[in-house]
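Per-record layout

source: Strigops habroptila
name: P2Y purinoceptor 2
length: 358
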Amino acid sequence: MADLTTPSAWTSLINSSLDPSIADDNGYKCIFDEDFKYVLLPVSYGIVCVVGLFLNLLSLYLFIFRIKTWNASTTYMFNLAVSDTLYVVSLPLLVYYYAMEDNWPFSVGLCKIVRFLFYTNLYCSILFLLCISIHRFLGICFPLKSLQWGHVRYARRVSVIVWVVTVVCQSPVLFFVTTSVNRDAITCHDTSSKDLFGQFVIYSSVMLVLLFCIPFLIIIICYCLMARRLLQPTRGMSRLSRSKKKSVKMIIIVLMVFIVCFLPFHVTRTLYYSFRSWDLSCQTLNAINLAYKLTRPLASTNSCLDPILYFLVGQRFMKFAGSKVPGKPPNEMALGIVPNSQLENSNDTDTLSKDVKS
């Protein structure tokens, strides 16, 4: 049992809650002052729900009703929007749960589904961002190969594979996640029961490597090679063209969004799970518990940032609501980009394709 002699700044016996996952799973009896999360999580999840639902429904409307012919990037972005929408519609349950101070009045099945949707959206977002990044990489660095591998039919097959892989990999969450009675309340854990916690940590570690570390490494490599290509001087031009500058900015923006949304969550979650398995002081446990709770809303904000990326990547995205946009800027060929119009004869498709690759 852990020593309870911790500074009052870290623990509180008044208006505090015993962290059920730590107390039940590992025998720690540290009392944490978690009042902050009963304000932070409902407010943050509520904002993500409202903003994310509006932006993703708007994006789905444009994808379905305004874009007549899709290209590879459109396909990946549409699937990303579907994933985000499925997640944000589950957030009202979490808003109510945390507003009621960790009291889950719904069924065990709903608890499992809500946690499952969180992780499914998390890793679907990562994998579809990976697909978009590879598609851009091929268009800039290997434009001839992108004619073949950038075809929409391949993007559809890859999208199906992403969904299948993510659902299969996250299906154990439905087995691990459970509820437990804590005093007069029912807690909806995002981990597992005490006897399965060791297996859950192993499972989470495997998912960390397969669905976060490897895709993140590939994205970094692709963007480094893209930046190297874009920063090369173009014959007859002493400065970076406008399109090249925009492409470099987009690389930086996507990487920053990826790092802000996904990296802090995975780091703090890994530390949180590891520290729960060790007999550490209440100070240390409370610090990592605080960090983990703070990064969970960050991971959810990708549902709001993904639709914004659609507009940043394709500045003419909203023009799909109007007439067709005329053709290709002359400096695009300087980027080594072969337009998808050679594959799909649609001005609508070319517009989004150019913006995505530029």
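summary: Confidence is low (pLDDT under 50) at residues 1-28, 321-358. Strands lie at 17-18, 31-32, 179-182, 185-188.
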